[in-house]
Every structure is written in structure tokens, then in C-alpha cells.
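sorry to bug you again but im stuck and you know this stuff better than me. what follows is a protein written twice so to speak, once as letters and once as C-alpha cells for the fold. id like you to explain what the C-alpha cell line says about the fold, in plain words if possible. anything you notice is useful, everything is just below.
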Amino acid sequence: MSLTLPPRVTDRAFARLAQIADDAGEACALRVAVDGGGCSGFQYDIRLDAPAEDDLILEKDGQKVLVDPVSLPFLENAVIDFSEELIGARFVIENPNASSSCGCGISFSM
């Protein structure tokens, strides 16, 4: 029986989430989910959302990242980060389970 390691959220991602909450004037949780579709078979759905009863909640300094139980196996041992580049700033997923991904960084295959 193998141990499933949950995704890890970087301090930079939690800090950006705190900035978003400050700008909005209220705390908001970041949902990271995996859906079927995209150009590589699966795609990430990253959005602000309210926690559901069966979510895995990754929390630091009052900031929350949510992962639903269906998406969790696809995100095993992944790293949820925030990247600021010339082309824009966004939350990114470094996923060791993805065998390939497309150039947009949103779609991947396993």
C-alpha cells in the first residue's frame, strides 16, 4: 500500500492569495481542481471558491487552498506555486504525475 502525498503550496502562492484577499476585502480560498479536457487530456481549473465538505484544505496564515477528492490523485506530490513573468502572473502547478503538458501550462496528460 503506497502513501499518497498531498500537493504542497509554496509560501509565494500563499502570499499572493493573501494579497488577493486584502484587495477583495474578504478571505477567499483558492480551488485547484483537475478536469477532463484541454489539448492534452486533462486541464487544471484554478479559481477562487468556497470550501466544500469533502475538500482537502491546505492552510497557512489563514489562507486556504482547496483540493476536491476526485482531483487529489492527479495532484499527488505536486507543487502549487505563483509565478510572475513578463507574459503575466499566475498560479502554476508543478506536477510530477504529468507525462507531458502543453505550452499553456493549463493542460497535461498522464
Remarks:
- The longest helix spans residues 11-24.
